[in-house]
Structures are given as C-alpha cells and as structure tokens.
Design brief:
854 residues, Four Helix Bundle (Hemerythrin (Met), subunit A), Heat Shock Protein 90, 5 domains, 25 helices, 22 strands
Length: 854
C-alpha cells in the first residue's frame, strides 16, 4: 500500500512535475508566443498609424491647394491661412513617415517618391503665390491654368494610394505570422494565446473604429471652425465671442487689432483684461454694455464715441452663458446722414427761395418797366428823373438780393462759357483796388499756362469781389488779399472724402487774406444763408452762401481753410474745359425801335401790361396772352408773328418750351425769347436748343437790345419740295430746296426737340416712333435725303432698321444715334452720333450725307 501510495505519490509528483513542466512549457510557449504576438501587434499598429499619417499628409496637400485657390478667387490674404497651416503639417507628417518606414527598403523607396512629388507640388504652390504677389492675379492664374498643379496633385494621390496599398499587404503578412505563432502553442498556450489574440483583435478593431470616428469628428470640428472663422473674418467690424468663463473663444482680425492683441503669440484675453487699462480702446467700447452682469433681458445696443470715431456696440446673449459682441464703426454713416440732412435742408430752402424769387422778380419787373416808361415821359423834369433813378436803383438792389438767394439755392440762370480765368482775374484787379481801398494790398499769383474753365464769367467776378470784400472786413487794420490761379487735379481719394466732388481736372482760384481768421465752429457755418459775424445792418449773410451756391451749380467745389490769427483762404475749384475761349465782338447791337409783330405770353397781368406798353412804344405790333394755352389758340388761328416772347413758369397744360416748339412748327423761322426770374430745371441748354433768354428783372435798354439781337439772328427756312417717288434712285439734292429728313425716335419730347433742331437747320422733317413705321413711310413716300434713327426702339431696333434701309435704299444715308456708346454696326453710308447731340452734330451729319450723295 505504501509502495502503491509512494508509487501514486511518485506518479502524482511525476504527473505534477510533468504537468508543471507542461504548464511551464505551455506558459513558456504562451509567454514566448505572447511576446511574439505582441511584437506583431506593434507592427500592425504601426502599419495603421503609417496609413493614417499618409492620409493626413494627402489631406494637408489638398488643404494647401484649396487655400491657394481661395486666395486666387478672392485676393484675400486670409484665404492663405489653410495653405500656411498645411505646410507646417506636411513637414511634421513627412518626418514621422520617414521614421516609420525606416528599415523597409520597398516602403522607404515609395516614401521617397511621395516626398519628392510632394515637394514639387509645394514648389508649384509657392511659385503661384509668389507670382500673385509680384505680378498680380492674372499672372498667378496663368500659372494655374497650365494644369501642372492638378497633375502633381493627382500624382501625389496615386503615390499615396500605392503606399497605403503596400502597407495593407504588409499588414496582411504580419497578421498571417501572428496566426502562425498562435497555432504552434500547446493547449494551454493556444487557449491563452487564443484568448489574448481574440482580445487583441477586438481591441484593435475598437481602436481602428475609434480612430476613424475620432478622425471624422476632428475633420467635422475643423470644418466648422474654419466656417466660423471665415464668417467672422468676412466682417470688417470687430466681433468676438465670450464664453461663460469670461474668456474670448472666437474673434476676427479686426478685434485683434482693436484689442492690440497678437493671436498665436499671446493667450486669448479674458473679459477682465479687455476692461482693464491695458486695453483702453476695448475698455471704452465695452464698459457701457455691462458684460459682467449675471443676467440680461436680451440683446443690447449702445452708442459709444472713442478716438474721434463713433461706434454702435451690439451684444447677443448665448444660451449656455457668454455673449457675442460686435463693434460697428458708424462714423461714415453719421457723416452721410448729416450730408443727407444738409442736402434736404438746401433743397427745402431752394424750393422756398425759388418760389419767392419768381414772384418777387415779377413784382420787380412791373416796377422796373413802369419806371422805364416814366423815365421816357419825364422829359426834362430833373426832380422826377432823380426820383425815377432812385427807384430804379432800389429795384436793382432788390434784383441783386433775389439773385443772391437764387445763387445760394443753385437756381440762378447761368450762362457758362469757356473762360480764361487768368485774364478775368487780371482784368478784375483794378476794380478790386478801387473797391478794397488803399489800406489793403492786392497780390496776384498766376500759374504758368493756367487752364480755362467753363463758367459764368460775370458770376465768377461777383464771387471774387464778394470774397475780397469779406477779406477786407476781416482786416480792419489793413493787410493783404491774395488771389491765386493755378491748375489742380482732385483724385478719387479726395473725392471719397468729399462726396459732392467729381474727380478730375479743375482750375483753382484761391482768395486768401492775412486777417483775424475764424475758429472751426464759425468756419463750419460760413456758407449757411443769413449767417454773419458782422454787426446789425452791416451784412445780409448771403455773400459766402451765394459764392457757395454759384460754385456748386457750376459743378465745382469750394473749400474754406481758416485759423485764428492766420487768416482765411477760400478755394474755388472750377471745372476745366478743353473748348476754346470765344472772344465777344464789341459794338452796339442794333436800333431800339422796330416794326415786327410780337406775341407776348405772361401770366402776371401787371408785368404783361408793362411789357406790352414798352414794346408798343418802340413801334412793335404786339398781341398778348395770359398763358401758353391761350397763346397756342392764337397761333393756330394766325401764326404770322416774327417773335414769341414768353415767360417760362406759367399755369396751363403746355410748357413754355412746348409752346415755342409749336410756334416754330406753325411758323418756321419765328424767333423765340424766354424770360423768367426762376428757371431751374425748366429751361433747356439754350446754347444747344437755340432759345435765348433774358432774366427778370430787366431794363428797357437790355430788353430792346436783346429783342433786336434775337430778331437779327433769325434763320430763314426754305419751303419743302414735293416728295419724290420711292421708285428708282434718290434725286440729287438741289441747293434751293429743303433737305428731307426722316427721324425715328420713340421718346416724344426728344422727337419734338430734335425735329425742331433739324427744322432750324433748314430741313423738312417727318418723324415716327418705330422702325416699322419708318419702313412703311419710306415705301409710301420715299424721296428722303437722310434717315436719323435711335438705337433703342420698340420692336425693331435701330441697327436692324439701318440694315434694312441700306438694303432697300442703298443711296439713302443713315445716321444712328445712341446714348449707350458706339454700336457694332458699321458700313458705307452709315454715320454714328452720340447722345446728347447738338445742332452742330446734326449739321455735320447733314453735310456728310450731302457729300455721300454727291
């Protein structure tokens, strides 16, 4: 038994030892294979990390390409931030990849090919950025259009795919080796290793899936961050976000400049830092918002002024605590609003002034006309003549006052002509010396080769005299008045600061003094009407406002520079003209009396009676009408008048201009003379329309001279001959017959005015409103010498009409008029004139057609 026990014990011991050996062997094998499996696992993980690094590297290359394309599309340097970040990521990823593939020759060769192509790609991107910065956007786009960049990006992707595929194959081989190690273990070892392998596979799977999800989350977060940053940077105004911990978590570059904070070099500031003395700008802007309050009823807006600028600060509360703050610079907006209010004030004052001046000028016209009649009846009565002259002087003074009001409101009738400004100032020097007195010295400074300006010379003389007298009053103890004439260019930068200025060339007239000067608050009101620093009874306050209105009405610019103790300088910028200066011929205009028949149209009964009395006294045969409608009825019954003398602002369905056009159609060759005390926007440019004008109130001498001048300049109109047949060629134009013109224009008023201009040039005009009507008229009547057509017509365009007319009537010249530039249609027998055109343009077109037909 003991032997049996010993044998059993021995067997047990042996079995135990054997089992222990087996277990030890199994454990050894398990440990050995576990270590081997662990090594294989590390290699597998390294494979995954290498593939992930390769994917991130390719993504970085793509981000760099996207950043560059954003920069090329927008030209915004902030669009290059993805490109710059991608460069840093590429360098780090390439170093990690190089370390990961070290020791494997095939993988190292693939990596080197990928690294070389990636370097070439970034060289191409750097070259494109450099071309943009050195030569501009077009040069960069030219490099991009070669397609080399896209080809390199495709090669980068192909090499990356090949590299990843090689890593996958290597991963497969390593997984096979791992399974082989496990198959060689004993039962215990196989179980242990099998469990470990299963656990390892599960862990790796979890890691891979988690890594994928983490990568997707990181990409989504990065995309949202880029979108948020791009949105913030798109705003010019400073904007930032504060979280519940009172820290700045999002911002744009404008906020960084405002807070004097350098992102990347300094940590994001906190609310306490923004409200501290270290950042005075943000402290001044944010303190009124009370951002530190624990609760808020909703968004808040406050207006703050800082460092000469005005801001509106907006706060929007966030649900999780914190706030979004935006600082909007409203300085320019406030300036624009002030300019708008000033413009509205000027417009309202102008409307009031215009209506008042019109009625007042009618009253003055009655007074002046009756004074002139009394003057003729006074004979040798010296006392009566003296009273008449005193009353006439008072009427003239009232007229000057009205003229000053109209000048301020920019409603005075001007006659701008090309003027030699330097000569005008020199000729004015003697008058200035007599007007300013001996205690005031006058200095003239004329630049070499000064330009000419298109200006009303008489009004400019008055403006310079007004400024000189103001300068004299600012120097009670004597001093110097300087008048300088020079050339000036106002560029777009200056025009941006002064919205009423159009950039371009100007003639500068600078009137300065050595007087006491003005403080800024006085200078700011200097151009306001009725504002004066003189004592009661010593000034109307209209002098500077008249100069201001005259310059602005002349499309010029006026500026005042003054300082206490340093004098005042008022600069007049007058629009330059390339047109030659026309010298006026001297000598008398003509005799006062006449026998022509005149139709007077005037709604004021007193003015009408006075004018009729004057004209009748001079020998004219006169009929009168109280409004254009009555005058039109008179003309339709009997149009045998030599001159139509009409006021402009009158009641009725017809305007004065329409009445004049009707009179000239009923009576070709009738002269027209317009008059008014207020004519803004109602008088056409008489240098182009042919309607002369005399402003109220006028003297009898001025009216008689103007009448003789207008009657002497009448242009006789030849009677039109019967139309020729449309069959066959157009007969040559005879010298003794009117040219027949077919006018095609859909705008009724423009058609009427152009018809009138052509009739004044001696033409017989037929006018229609469409191309279809023109073709119908040509087919029915024919015999026209010229076709004038607008481009923009309803239905058939002017170009299409011109082509058909040239096909059907090859000998008929065509003139195409357009206000939208020269049309593309060109050819023999076609002429282009640009709108707005003058009588000279139409005369040249007629002469051209005659040469073509000859």
């Amino acid at each position: 038994m003991p032997s049996l026990l010993r044998s059993a014990r021995s067997t047990g011991v042996i079995a135990g030892i054997t089992l222990a050996v087996l277990i030890a062997t199994g454990l050894m094998l398990a440990l050995t294979h576990s270590k081997s499996a662990a090594r294989q696992q590390r290699l597998v993980v390294a494979n995954y990390e290498t593939m992930a690094l390769m994917r991130e590297t390719v993504i970085a290359v793509q981000d760099a390409e996207i950043g560059l394309r954003g920069f090329l599309l927008t030209g915004d340097a902030t669009s290059l931030e993805p490109y710059e970040r991608a460069r840093l990521r590429i360098e780090s990823s390439l170093r990690q990849l190089e370390a990961a593939v070290e020791g494997d020759s095939d993988t190292t060769r693939q990596f080197q090919e990928f690294r070389d192509v990636t370097a070439q790609k970034f060289d191409q991107l750097n070259a494109t950025v450099g071309a943009y910065q050195l030569n501009g956007r077009e040069a960069a786009l030219a490099l991009d259009r070669t397609g080399a960049g896209r080809a390199m990006l495709s090669q980068v992707r192909l090499l990356a795919d090949a590299f990843v595929e090689g890593q996958r194959l290597l991963l497969a081989r390593r997984l096979t080796a791992l399974r082989s190690e496990q198959e060689q273990a004993d039962t215990a070892g196989l179980l242990v290793m099998g469990g470990a392998f299963v656990c390892l596979i599960v862990g790796i799977s979890i890691i891979v899936r988690s890594a994928g999800r983490l990568e997707l989350s990181q990409h989504a977060l990065a995309g949202r961050s880029r979108l948020l940053q791009a949105t913030l940077e798109s705003l010019r105004d400073p904007i930032f976000v504060i979280d519940g911990e009172r820290s700045v978590v999002a911002w744009n570059e404008a906020f960084a400049r405002l807070a004097q904070w350098e992102p990347g070099k300094q940590a994001p500031p906190t609310l306490d830092q923004l409200l501290s003395d270290r950042s005075p700008a943000t402290r001044a802007l944010l303190q009124p918002l009370d951002l530190g309050a624990t609760s808020s009823t909703g968004p808040a807006v406050v207006r703050v002024a800082h460092d000469g600028r005005d801001y509106e600060i907006y706060r929007g509360e966030m649900s999780g605590g914190g706030a979004v703050v935006r600082c909007v610079d409203i300085t320019e907006k406030l300036h624009d609003e002030a300019a708008l209010r000033q413009g509205q004030k000027m417009e309202a004052t102008g409307q009031l002034t215009g209506g008042m001046a019109h009625d007042f000028n009618n009253i003055l016209q009655v007074i002046r006309a009756n004074l002139d009649l009394l003057k003729n009846e006074a004979g040798d009565n010296a006392a009566m003549l003296s009273r008449v002259q005193s009353a006439t002087a008072a009427a003239d003074r009232g007229a000057r006052l009205t003229q000053q009001l109209l000048a301020f409101a920019r409603r005075q009738p001007l006659t701008p002509q090309p003027t030699n400004i330097a000569r005008l100032v020199r000729d004015l020097a003697d008058l200035m010396r007599h007007s300013l007195g001996e205690r005031i010295a006058i200095e003239l400074k004329i630049a070499e080769n000064p330009w000419n300006a298109k200006i009303d010379a008489g009004q400019l003389e008055n403006a310079i005299l007004n400024l000189s007298l103001n300068a004299r009053d600012a120097m009670p103890d004597g001093g110097t008045v300087r008048v300088e004439v020079s050339n000036a260019i106002l560029d777009r930068r200056y025009a941006a600061l002064h919205p009423e200025v159009s950039p371009g060339p100007y003639v500068l007239v600078d009137v300065g003094d050595t007087g006491t000067g003005m403080p800024p608050e006085i200078a700011a009101q200097a151009f306001d009407p009725f504002f004066t620093t003189k004592g009661d009874g010593k000034g109307t306050g209209l002098g500077l406002s008249m100069v201001y209105g005259f310059v602005r009405q002349s499309n010029g610019h006026i500026r005042i520079d003054s300082a206490i103790g340093q004098g005042t300088s008022i600069k007049l910028y007058l629009p330059r003209t390339e047109d030659p200066v026309v010298e006026e011929a001297g000598g008398p205009v003509g005799a006062v009396s006449g026998s022509e028949r005149i139709l007077v149209v005037e709604d004021s009964e007193d003015v009408r009676r006075a004018v009729v009395d004057m004209l009748t006294g001079w020998g004219y045969r006169v009929e009168a009408a109280e409004d254009p409608d009555v005058a039109a009825a008179i003309l339709e019954k009997d149009a045998a008048f030599d001159l139509l003398f009409t006021d402009i602002v009158m009641p009725g369905t017809l305007t004065a201009v329409e009445l004049a056009q009707l009179a000239q159609r009923l009576r070709p060759g009738i002269a027209v003379l317009l008059t008014s005390g207020f004519a803004r926007g109602l008088i056409p440019d008489h240098t182009r329309s042919g309607y002369p004008m005399i402003a109220k109130p006028y003297s009898s001498e001025a009216l008689s001279a103007k009448l003789r001048s207008v009657l002497a300049n009448r242009r006789p109109v030849a009677a039109p001959l019967p139309a020729a047949s449309s069959e066959g060629p157009v007969p040559p134009l005879a010298e003794d017959r009117a040219r027949r013109v077919l006018l095609v224009e859909d705008e009724v008023l423009l058609r009427m005015s152009t018809t009138d201009m052509l009739e004044r040039l001696g033409c017989s005009v037929s006018s229609v409103g469409s191309g279809e009507a023109a073709l119908e008229l040509l087919g029915r009547e024919g015999g026209y010498d010229l076709l004038v057509t607008d481009v923009g017509l309803p239905g058939m365009s002017g170009e299409e009409l011109a082509v058909k007319v040239r096909q059907l009537y090859p000998s008929l010249p065509v003139v195409i008029a357009s206000g939208y530039g020269r049309p593309g249609l060109q050819g023999e027998g076609m002429l282009f004139i640009s709108k707005p055109y003058s009588s000279i343009d139409l005369q040249q077109a007629l002469d051209h057609s005659v040469r073509k037909m000859a």
